[in-house]
């Protein structure tokens, strides 16, 4: 599963952390810094 949100959206960043998303990259879009993360139900090698 993937998730993308603006880094300025503190509530979304907290939810992503609580759900166990791992940051893959940050990038600029829509005039703001974006956060892109991934969540694996198990380990990536499963």
From TrEMBL:
SUPFAM superfamilies: Acyl-CoA N-acyltransferases (Nat). This is N-acetyltransferase domain-containing protein. The lineage of its organism: Bacteria, Bacillati, Bacillota, Bacilli, Bacillales.
């Amino acid at each position: 599963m993937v998730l993308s949100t603006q880094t300025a959206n503190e509530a979304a960043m907290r939810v992503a952390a609580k759900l166990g998303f791992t940051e893959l990259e940050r990038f600029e879009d829509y005039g703001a810094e974006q956060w892109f993360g991934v969540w694996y139900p198990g380990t990536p090698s499963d």
